[in-house]
Amino acid sequence: MAARVGSYLARWTVFVPIIAVVALVFTWGRDLPSVVVVVAACLLGGAVLAAVHHAEVVAHRVGEPFGSLVLAVAVTIIEVALIVTLMISGGEKAQSLARDTVFAAVMITCNGLLGISLLVGALRRHVAVFNAEGTGGAFATVATIATLSLVVPSFTTSRPGPQFSPAQLAFAAVSSLALYLLFVTVQTRRHRDYFLPITSSGKVIDVEEHLDPPSGRLALASLGVLMVALIAVVGLAKGVSPSIESGVESIGLPPGVVGVVIALLVLLPETIAAVRAAARDRVQTSLNLAVGSAMASIGLTIPAIAIAMIWLDGPLLLGLGGTQMVLLALTVVVGTLTIVPGRANVLQGGVHLALMAAFLFLAASP
């Protein structure tokens, strides 16, 4: 066992995240020259691939849906910490940072991640099969908390502009967290079978068939390295963001595009993990990652921001604009029609990817 752990620690998937974190320590909060930005971007890519590997090791040990939950929650917790850190730095851009980040995460996961997972699964088996009961309940929860947190503030009258009063923000935070915890209970305890991969005949697949699960020690080691890799991913994404912002400004794109690019970078580990699962005919695992990540992003971010607003100054703009509301509403309608049958082909995957493309285009050309 000691030799096995020693060989495990010698893998590139372990030392690349460590090097990335060391680089993060030396580059945090500094203006980076172009050469350093390129090195940081390479380390960022390596940390993403390492995070996917370790997430799969943990998932193989604990099984579904716990594996998907571990990756989604880990990414979201670190993402929330990054948002709060940026908001503490202040500035006018910080007022809408939480809204822009959460909305981007919802659109990327519920359209981009879900669409490419269905497309890969359908290309492999002609029809992608999943459990509509579990995925449908999760998607309904995402639609509910997204509406309460991002749409309702645009219509309340207690405060001017698209923002909540303190009491309204507290209600939205408690509701979001309560619904997320209820979902986790249903997913992991009461109705775990709703979130397990199924075959085209509807048979539940509860075990990995091709490999023995890793030992508990190796799984714990992977969990630790996973957290290190995710810290490196989010931190380096922030580190290269000034260069991204400069590039965005130089080609005349809106400042909001920076948030979208950062969200895409942060969600890379989940995206790669979801595509790999779909390619192995585990579409349900992919959808657990997609919808679960969207839910974690809202259900954990809004309560954290509500607490942070106790000591942060300035307004918190949560309400979406008209164009964003239309995209969110269309996503909910199309997503419902996709999920209800429990089967999807390349058309449904293509429609969601088209919505993702529309979101990216309108972010660049509002």
TrEMBL record:
It holds the Pfam family Na_Ca_ex. It is found in: Membrane. The keyword Transmembrane applies. InterPro entries: Alkaline_pH_Ca-Antiporter, NaCa_Exmemb. Keywords: Membrane, Transmembrane, Transmembrane helix. It comes from the Bacteria. It is a multi-pass membrane protein. The keyword Transferase does not apply. The chain crosses the membrane at residues 12-29, 35-54, 66-90, 102-123, 135-155, 167-186, 218-237, 257-275, 287-311, 317-339, 346-364. Residues 35-188, 222-362 form the Sodium/calcium exchanger membrane region domain. PANTHER family: SODIUM-POTASSIUM/PROTON ANTIPORTER CHAA (PTHR37958), SODIUM-POTASSIUM_PROTON ANTIPORTER CHAA (PTHR37958:SF1). This is Ionic transporter y4hA. It comes from Paractinoplanes hotanensis.
